[in-house]
Amino acid sequence: MNYFNCFPLPPGLTINTSPGAAGYITGTPTSVGSDIVTLLAGNLNYPTPATLPAVITIYPPNTAPVITAQPRSVSVFDGRAASLTVGVYGSLPFNYRWLLNGTNPAGGGSATLSLPGVTLAQAGDYHVVISNSFGSATSEVARVTVQEPSSLDLRLTQENWSNGVFQFTAAGPLLTNYIVWGSADLSQWLPLQTNLVINGVLRYNDAEAATRTNRFFRVSFGP
Q1: Within the chain, what is the greatest distance between any pair of CA atoms?
Q2: Rounded to an integer, what distance in angstroms lies between the CA atom of residue 181 and that of residue 179?
């Protein structure tokens, strides 16, 4: 015979754990919020029940939407996937209306707007209007920047020597791993640093430059 349980239950909720019971959670919750619980299902013929973590979220009644997390701006290459997400609190159900540049419908009827293959036409300012039976809320603007594919052009600029530290800037593609190499004789090169460069600009500082007779640098792209 089967039996079920869920623990710890939010205040005001109960579950019948007797063998043969259906395992429904019933009652009237006395507080709102999210609770992490464990679902349990067992059979009296077997010694070990099955368990699974879950989240029970209790939303308040008769409450207009309140935005708890604003969508964040993103920058992607043309053709890559992007998404915007908003957090909201209030009475269910919610209606989500995502807009591009103020008035253009952007699709998406949930808290997350998914853009599987972003085009240049989809670049711009996005916001979402969330409504329910008791009111509405409008999010802040999040910008989607779409970068056109570019050649792997890399430039080293802004070389500077100050207080025993040699500095230079590597400027090139976005969202790319930059590998800084060093050499004393231009024949043997050793990797000094690898960084994922989000905005296409890497500033490198060599604090040991004053201790070396010769020092050469180069930068490459890596996986």
Answers
A1: 82
A2: 6
Instruction: For residue 209, name the pLDDT band (cuts at 50, 70, 90).
Output: confident
CB atoms within 10 A of CB 166: 18
Q: What is the pLDDT at residue 60? A: 86
Task: Residue 210: count other Cβ atoms within 10 Å of its Cβ.
Answer: 12
What would the mean pLDDT of 62-72 be, rounded to a whole number?
A: 94
Pick from 126, 166, 125, 174: nearest CA to 149: 174
135-165 pLDDT, tens digit per residue, is 999 999 999 988 765 555 677 777 888 888 8
Q: Are 165 and 214 contained in the same domain?
A: yes
Other C-beta atoms closer than 10 Å to the C-beta of 22 total 8
Range of the domain at 37: 2-58
**Count of the separate structural domains present in the chain:** 3
Long-range interactions of 208-212: CB distance < 8 A, separation 24+ = 209/161, 209/164, 209/165, 209/166, 210/164, 210/165, 212/184
Cα–Cα distance measured from residue 215 to residue 207, given in angstroms and rounded to the nearest whole number: 12
User: By the 8 A CB rule, do 59 and 32 touch?
Assistant: yes
